[in-house]
Request: fold
Amino acid sequence: MPGWSELVIEGAAKAARAFVIGFAAGREAPQAVFVGDDLALEPASLGARLRDLFTAGSHHVFLVPDDVAAPLDAAIRACGADVGLRVERTRRIDSVGFTFRVEAYSPDVAADIRAALIAMRPSSVRIEQLSENEERHPEAHGAEPFAPLHEYIYRASGRIVGPPDAVIRMYRDARTQDFVETNALHIDAKR
Amino acid sequence: MTTEELGSLLPVWSAIPFAGMLLSIALFPLLAPAFWHHHYPKVAAGWAAVVVVPFVAAYRGVALRELAHVALVDYVPFIILLGTLFTIGGGIYVRGRLRGTPGVNAALITIGTVLASWVGTTGAAMLLVRPLLRANRERRHRSHTIVFFIFLVANIGGALTPLGDPPLFLGFLHGVPFFWTLALWRETVFTALCVLGAYVVVDVILWRREDVALRARPKRPSEPLGIDGWHNFLVLGGVLVAVVWSGTHDLGEMEVFGLRQQRQNVVRDVVLLFLLLVSWLTTARTVREENAYTWEPIREVAILFGGIFATIIPALAMLRAGEQGALAFVIRAVREPAHFFWASGFLSSFLDNAPTYLTFLSTALGRLYPGVPEREAIAALIRENHGFLQAISTGSVFMGANTYIGNAPNFMVKSIAEEAGVPMPSFFGYILRYTLPVLIPAFALATIVFF
Reply:
């Protein structure tokens, strides 16, 4: 399984995006780049949060495969200054993950969510702290104005962890699913 | 001892069980739905007992007379009307599947808004929420449509007749003429158009964000439209005739369980029960199954309003005593129609609007006509200060839409929509995303124009 790296590039957003995507396209791997500005990324630390307050908009995160990361880093170091770009940091990514919470009230909706998040996930993705339960209240059938209770309730929560490409695909799908709440993507990486 | 004298003797804390009862109805479905679903009869009985037992022990004859009066004049006719409307509404099923375009959605919501005053907000909501959900099944943006449906069909639309919303029927039972409510048409049309206009703007914007393939589909309904159980509209006409007749004829008084009762009201209730039976017996079972009809809503109303009507007695007596009662501070706090509109509306946003209406009606009577018998005071209120009654009526009915807990059909519609796969906003999401930007400005405009 190919490894992934996180590059933090300082400079104008459009220039950074164009440089990285153009570079990846030149290596015939444009789809393999994830732009942090397009994702909801969790700040790495309290320090990163504080820094973001003061440098908002000037640092941009990119997730790229290792075979693109090293030459990209070298290219920016070599000629990035011409377009105002500078590599601030490069880290090897161990995994990417996000936590989710589901509460749905229809067996059909629950089955769709379950398939997307749990049953049919890629083999490279694992779920940590998975909790699932179903409640059925047949006595709550029909319209109830004053004491409403759902006839069926599906609850689930957990944390999806794995390689960036698979997890980010799942994350994007999960964010389009009704009744699914997701937290920001967390990147586990080391320098 | 008269009711007015009783009102000046009762201490302010005797209204606590009433507040507890209303807060239970408002908060338990939100905080502990499973507990509430299974134990609400015990909670209601508990609050009622807290009032009834000491009340009867302390005031004996007067208390028993008050309880019997509330039961016969308010509770029984109220339950009979709601039960009849619900049974008839549950016997009408709108088949077919429309295409959920902004035009179709606005038309369905408009039909529901108009219908709400004649079949009740609960009946209109139950009748049209499923066709609306079916029409929008494939749309990605659906929550806003259901929220505006709650605003208009489950609340604002019910303001035109006493059949529309329980507070107005309580007003009718207390002496407000049936057709007086039609005088609220200006406020109702104005507010409904403001809210509907906002809906159309929002839905057109969100429709443009829908998938191109969905927007390009043929405009005809994907399943032909039809109405099952249409004869229930005729039965509904019978309800209208019976209620109007009872409000315009005087057959004198009769004694029921030792209490004087208007003969035409007894005839009306018997006719309503007969119409309920007619609807039940003449409607195919399949129609009721399609509507997921059960008797549970009527059971809920019967039990919970039993608790409300039992606990409301001290509060109403204190308010009717005016400056002499322990709730004189409430009467002093609300002076103008605009105050009544917002005060009754604010409380209706979080508590059930029927008892809220009665509370503020009593507040207005206590302020303007203290010590005058209720029916005479209401007649004088309409003759001399009708702006107060308009404000209380519209505030109580309209602002039930402000939160999920403001009016009973709100939660019912939310629940049905969620079971159909529509993600509804949270309690606070509903207020922040819809009530504050849409309803509050509309009500502020209505205040400027009418109060």
The first helix of chain A runs from residue 13 to 26. The CA atoms of residues 80 and 86 of chain A lie 6 Å apart. Chain A touches chain B through 21 residues (CB under 8 Å). The mean pLDDT of chain A is 87.
